[in-house]
Request: fold
Amino acid sequence: MLQPQEIEVMYIIPAIRRELAKALIRVNPSQKAVAQMLGITPAAVSQYISEKRATEVKFNEAFQELIDESAKKIAQNHFLVIQEINELCQNFRKSDLICQVHKQLDTFDNKICDYCKR
Reply:
């Protein structure tokens, strides 16, 4: 049984980075620059934009809009990256999306589960 924190670390944060990388590459096509903004390697950026990494989780349109807004802020000030990813994680945790991902990825009997949102 996966803990909600494991879901976040193993799936949600990488998926957020994937979408941030894709949004930032539209603003600055240099993978090296995007990697520096996100504090990851250029190879990771390449894998994110080519959908070779962090493909298990897809975000709905509303959450994607939050990611795009965060990308704009990060593009203007890359020192905000930790704050923005943290806020995105908090928003994800508060929504039903965390439960949907947990149910998709875990095998326990989760019909009445609400632990992720506690």
Summary: The mean pLDDT is 89.
